[in-house]
Amino acid sequence: xxSGPTSTAQSGASTPSDPQQAATQLVGTVRVKRGLADxxxxxxxxxxxxxxxxxxAEDAGAVAVMALERVPADIRRDGGVARMSDPAMIExxxxxxxxxxMAKARIGHFGExxxxxxxxxxxxxxxxxxxxxxxxxxxxKWAFTVPFVCGATNLGEALRRISExxxxxxxxxxxxxxxxxxxxxxxxxITGDIRKITQADxxxxxxxxKQLQSPLGLVQEIAETGRLPVPLxxxxxxATPADASLVMQLGAEAVFxxxxxxxxxxxxxxAEAIVEATTHYRDPSVVAKVSRGLGSAxxxxxxxxxxTKLADRGW
Amino acid sequence: xxxxxxxxxxxxxxRRLGARAIEVRVPSDLEGVGAVVIPGGESTTMSHLLGxxxxxxxxxxxxxxxxxxxxxxxxxxxxxxxxxxxREDQRFFSAIDISVxxxxxxxxxxxxxxxxxxxxxxxxxxxxxxxxxxxxxxxVFIRAPWxxxxxxxxxxxxxxxxxxxxxxGVGPNSVPVLCRSGPILVSSFHPELTADDRIHRMFLDMVAxxxxx
Lengths: 315, 213
Hints:
The complex is a heterodimer. Chain A is an alpha/beta fold. Chain A is built from 13 helices and ten strands. Chain A is globular, with a radius of gyration of 20 Å. Chain B is an alpha/beta fold. Chains A and B meet through strand 2, helix 1 and helix 12 of A and helix 1, helix 2 and strand 5 of B.
């Protein structure tokens, strides 16, 4: 952890004759943080709990893995306080694969986030799937060199997280249910409001900022660009290739699959099929082809039957 | 090539410079394409999707026939002749005689921005030297690879000094991060993430001039 973008002077001998030696390298900038999210676009990030699962995910074409102790479906079943994973478990997964490794910290728990940064994880998910540590404050993400992804259910929440330094936004969906309905609601809420803001005049933008409880500058930026300033990914309830195709068509730029792969009957082929559907989402014949014979998806849950709605966590 | 990663930024850069660009995902998309850009992203994912989409063989054949290509980061890995620290089953095109080490600069917390001096070689086609590359190029490196070996016909256009020690044999203090050989241009960094189009212009000039080194 450090106090923002850092300038690291070159180590080693410096000779005036070689200008490269005098160059300065900047780490932890917004550009390199958002840049990694850009590189994950069009890909699938998979929850894994063991090095073996991480290998299956990489074999299937995952762009990154999320290392955690229990997938959301099990967290939901087991109850109790869900915390950051054991560092040894995260290191085991880092050693098993060559793709980026993400890990989750509790909302507001900057102590866990500092540990994850020290472990050299590639992205931290400040996640509602874990039990929140602070009921009012999210982590000050500007204070870290490692980038953060945060969940959002609507545009205001997304912009508040971005104002705190998040460099990737994902829908929250309702993790561990295998039910896509909440992720669709969140994506539509975010993209729908973005479309409306692009139609608003300058005076209306002040009211949008007030209504969204978000910084005016970010609202004005969206009015100009028609998109979030960071990549928008989808998470929470994706269980099939068709789900991936749906959310990509609704404006997601990549997908997270949590319980949907390793709680299904045959994880490897399903993981591969979701990867292909995410790339070829515009081509229903490809999605149809890869959807064949995958065995049963994870068992799903109806929203009405849930004791805890994880998406309600965070503010 | 738009199987995964930051293809949209390349498409935008190419179009800003007045050239046509389409997204390539399946073999039929290659019809009518005269040059290919392979973007940044995850090289293992792209390798996997090159296999499942059936794109690998036709694209490899076109590259073998001399189609110009520009690869950034993961794209550089896919165009290389040897990939170090990759997966054993990783596909690559061997279009440029370099050995590339994946994630050589480190994990994400080591990702960095730096100003690069781009040096066009004395033997370069003089028509390519007027791209306004005298001023430094601000380069963004993300979990970047570096070039560990270059073949005889490979021209090194920029180097950077890594924060950690480069391997022996590469050079005492710096590693190549922008290379050209015949119709192939590769970079460790992401010119598509900045508004500076000079390197894309260099590639389009290579395509237009039929440059073959």
